[in-house]
């Protein structure tokens, strides 16, 4: 008789994303970022952020990613709860994302790393960019939070 090892469940990696708005207390615009890589995702628009490193807390990862990618400091607001346990949003079979609202407290966002364009989108313009497919339900959940300027 041979012993069989059950197939390993691939670990799901946590990604952090910032729904950066112009003003946390009265948001009217959302910051979208256009990815440059990998080629399969290049040109897709997303929330700035990235993978949480081993041993790193998600909120520390969020501040680090936003500093690296956009060169700004942020104040983090409330969580935008997703449908998965832990209030995360499904991305792929390998990734899920936790999303917070945030606003810039220092600096001017610039596409320093991983993106080649940023755009502030008003509530009625959220779909003028081509969001990555996994971001569409997140954008739908954000839309009612934005008021017309
Ligand atoms: N940051 C971010 N990633 C997203 C979004 N939507 C989405 O499907 N993804 C995917 C793209 C990637 O496969 C994965 C996140 O990886 P990433 O490339 O942003 O992470 P990272 O900055 O830490 O990159 P790296 O250092 O590992 O290259 O999640 C989104 O809105 N924001």
UniProtKB/TrEMBL annotation:
GO terms for molecular function: 8-oxo-7,8-dihydrodeoxyguanosine triphosphate pyrophosphatase activity; 8-oxo-7,8-dihydroguanosine triphosphate pyrophosphatase activity; 8-oxo-dGDP phosphatase activity; 8-oxo-GDP phosphatase activity; metal ion binding. InterPro entries: MutT-like (IPR047127), Nudix_hydrolase (IPR020476), NUDIX_hydrolase-like_dom_sf (IPR015797), NUDIX_hydrolase_CS (IPR020084), NUDIX_hydrolase_dom (IPR000086). Its EC number is 3.6.1.55. It is an enzyme of class 3 (hydrolase). It comes from the Bacteria. GO terms for biological process: DNA repair; DNA replication. CDD domains: NUDIX_MutT_NudA_like (cd03425). The keyword Aminoacyl-tRNA synthetase does not apply. This is 8-oxo-dGTP diphosphatase. It comes from Terracoccus luteus.
């Amino acid at each position: 008789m041979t012993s069989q090892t059950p197939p390993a469940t691939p670990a799901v990696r946590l990604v952090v994303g910032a729904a950066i708005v112009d003003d946390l207390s009265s948001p009217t615009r959302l910051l979208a970022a256009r990815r440059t890589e990998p080629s399969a995702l290049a040109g897709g628009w997303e929330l700035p952020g990235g993978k949480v490193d081993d041993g790193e807390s998600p909120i520390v990862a969020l501040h680090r990613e936003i500093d690296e990618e956009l060169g700004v400091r942020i104040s983090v607001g409330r969580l935008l709860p997703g449908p998965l346990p832990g209030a995360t949003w499904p991305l792929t079979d390998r990734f899920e994302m936790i999303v917070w609202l945030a606003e810039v407290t220092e600096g001017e966002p610039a596409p320093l790393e991983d993106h080649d364009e940023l755009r502030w989108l008003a509530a009625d313009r959220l779909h003028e960019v081509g969001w990555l497919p996994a971001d569409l339900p997140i954008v739908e959940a954000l839309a009612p939070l934005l008021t017309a300027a």
